[in-house]
Amino acid sequence: MAEAPADPRHVVSPQVLDMLVCPLTKTRLTLSADRAELISVAARLAFPIRKGVPLLSLDEARNVDPEEIQRLSR
Questions:
Q1: How is the chain split into domains, by residue range?
Q2: Cα–Cα distance between 4 and 9 in angstroms, integer?
Q3: Its domain of life (predicted)?
Q4: 12-67 is classed in which CATH architecture?
Q5: CA quadruple 41, 52, 24, 18: dihedral positive or negative?
């Protein structure tokens, strides 16, 4: 079953994404393939995006496994 397209009101603009950095390492964030998370390769953390708002709190982040980091680095 195909996923429903994201609500355009809940999509983070590319201009905003270019300004955001990891709150821990201050490095660039990568948008996940499903556009639901911003991933910090340096910190191995994924920050959720809810209703178009990136939640860059360490309390909200999840740990990213090394295999997922390798896929992103390709």
A1: 12-67
A2: 14
A3: Bacteria
A4: Single Sheet (2.20)
A5: positive
* Claim: this prediction has a pTM higher than 0.90: no
**DSSP 8-state symbol, 25:** T
- Measured in residues, the chain has a length of 74
Collapse the DSSP code of 59 into the 3-class scheme (helix H, G, I; strand E, B; otherwise coil) and give the result.
coil
The per-type count for the chain, helices as H runs and strands as E runs, is 2, 5
Three-state SS for 2? coil
Nearest to 40 by CA among 51, 54, 12: 54
